[in-house]
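Question (not urgent): is this output format expected?
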Amino acid sequence: MPLAPRLLPASGHGEFPTDERCHILELLNRDELPGVSLARARVEPGVTTELHTLDVREIYVVLSGRGLMEGGGAAFPVGPGDAVDIPAGAPQRVTAVGDDDLVFLCLCLPRFRPEGYRSLEAAAPTP
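Got this back:
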């Protein structure tokens, strides 16, 4: 039997806010495709996402807005068309700068699972 494309119907879930201080729209995250997931993230102007690590590699592709990416001692501006390769286990956070939302795709290899997320802020002692 020849190979053929197959439809992966939309989940029907809309964008949702996260404790990480951003809004997520999962575009692809399925049990039958364990090697990859894809989401769209939106960070409101002036907001910095939670400092965290993931147990998977993540690649951001900026669609619109401007941001400041931070992690592992590095900080650099990002804008439309930029991609950021974040190794598994690397600390990361991003701030939306300017007047517009920062919107980017999050490609995870292998797929993102909530149990692979670790907040680095929750572990920090409060003054």
